[in-house]
Specification:
five-stranded mixed beta sheet; Sugar kinase of the NBD/HSP70 family, may contain an N-terminal HTH domain; transferase; 3 domains; alpha/beta; Nucleotidyltransferase, domain 5; kinase activity
């Protein structure tokens, strides 16, 4: 007899190791949203009540979830609500930048409970140095590496998708492949996420910021380097080699030496003119603002023509342009692309990177079964 998909969903999660892992993940994904009863979980996941009972029993034994009391009564016995146990295990977050790392410790509900700012000497960040700083953050909070179920790292560079290998990250002194994920996994276990910082920023903006509810988005980020994050159908697209969105490398062929947009119009390239103050004001004072904004806007046009997003987010230094600048970008897009997307400033600033990293690593912890000791 041929089984239907619904029948498979309602019976398979408890029968094989992979099925049990997938069943646990389905339960935990629902509990991420809000506390639920066993009956709620069966209805929402499509898994049979007996299998839900076994899955919940295992999760309770692993201290991944706990019972938090009874739901409101609608007549009869009140169902017991389940929730993710917030501090049974922990996740570590790191944002890497030139000369420094910003670290955070968070629980499984997504609450950040501790921060650590660390600086390294020299032009190169050593992966082992990062491991040591993360261990120090754990120890400062009474935790061991074994208490950590996941690590997420945001890198200002190209990261090969799903490998943890950073291809290049000039600000970190990495000019060739760097197996950062492997080094971290050697100390904290296999649940390690390494991704480009702008990709993680886009995830953060979609969950908590200006892109909430949007599925087709590009984020143009103006910083020392210029980069973009691309999301279609609710998924960030890293590209075949992790280099999707390296839009700042677009050449300016009319310039001597084949310089790039990033070299001429990124904050690193403009450093001699703008100093360390507010970039937009400094450029305006020197009569360069219109030229620079036109270059930034051209990148938004290129991205829109290539991807056809519903929303373009503009982040980093460009947010200093204010509403008049946003109107100008929107007007140029309306002239240049067949269907003008909505245009907004990113809302969260650099916090979006941490928020995106936290969102992604919590998903990975659940999907890979990393909560099981």
């Amino acid at each position: 007899m041929t089984r239907t998909l619904a029948e498979d969903r309602r019976t398979s999660p408890g029968k094989t190791p992979r099925g049990r892992r997938d069943g646990r993940a389905a339960v935990l994904r629902q509990l991420r949203e809000r506390p639920l009863s066993r009956t709620d979980l069966a209805e929402l996941t499509g898994i049979s009540q007996p299998v839900i009972t076994r899955l919940v029993r295992d999760l309770l034994a692993d201290e991944a979830v706990h019972e938090i009391g009874a739901a409101g009564s609608t007549g009869g016995r009140r169902p017991v609500l389940l929730a993710i146990r917030p501090r049974s295990r922990w996740v570590l977050l790191a944002r890497l930048a030139r000369g420094r790392a910003e670290l955070a410790l968070a629980d499984l509900t997504g609450t950040v409970v501790a921060h650590r700012h660390a600086a390294y000497e020299g032009d190169r960040m050593e992966p082992e140095w990062l491991v040591g700083e993360l261990v120090a953050l754990c120890r400062a909070n009474g935790l061991a590496a074994a208490d950590v179920c996941g690590v997420a790292v945001a890198v200002p560079g190209v990261v090969a998708p799903g490998t943890g290998v950073v291809g290049t990250a000039p600000d970190l002194g990495w000019t060739g492949p760097e197996a950062l994920g492997e080094v971290l996994a050697g100390r904290f276990g296999d649940c390690v996420l390494v991704d480009n910082d702008v990709n993680l920023m886009l995830t953060g903006e979609r969950v908590h910021g200006a892109a909430r509810g949007a599925d087709d988005v590009v984020l143009l980020y103006i910083g020392r380097f210029i980069g973009a994050g691309i999301m279609l159908g609710g998924r960030v697209l890293p590209g075949a080699h992790g280099a999707s969105g390296e839009i700042g490398l677009l050449p300016l062929r009319e310039q001597a030496g084949d310089s790039t947009v990033e070299q001429r119009y990124g904050l690193g390239g403009l450093a001699d003119e703008i100093g360390t103050g507010e970039p937009v004001r400094a450029l305006a004072d020197r009569g360069r603002l219109a030229e620079v904004v036109a270059a930034w806007t051209h990148l938004a046009v290129v991205l829109s023509l290539a991807v056809d997003p519903a929303l373009v987010l503009v982040g980093g230094a460009a947010t200093e342009l204010g509403e008049p600048g946003l109107v100008g970008i929107r007007s140029e897009l309306a002239r240049r692309v067949p269907v003008c997307p909505d245009v907004r400033f990113a809302e969260l600033g650099d916090r979006a990177v941490t928020q995106g990293a936290l969102e992604r690593i919590r998903d990975l912890v659940i999907d890979t079964g990393a909560l099981r000791d």
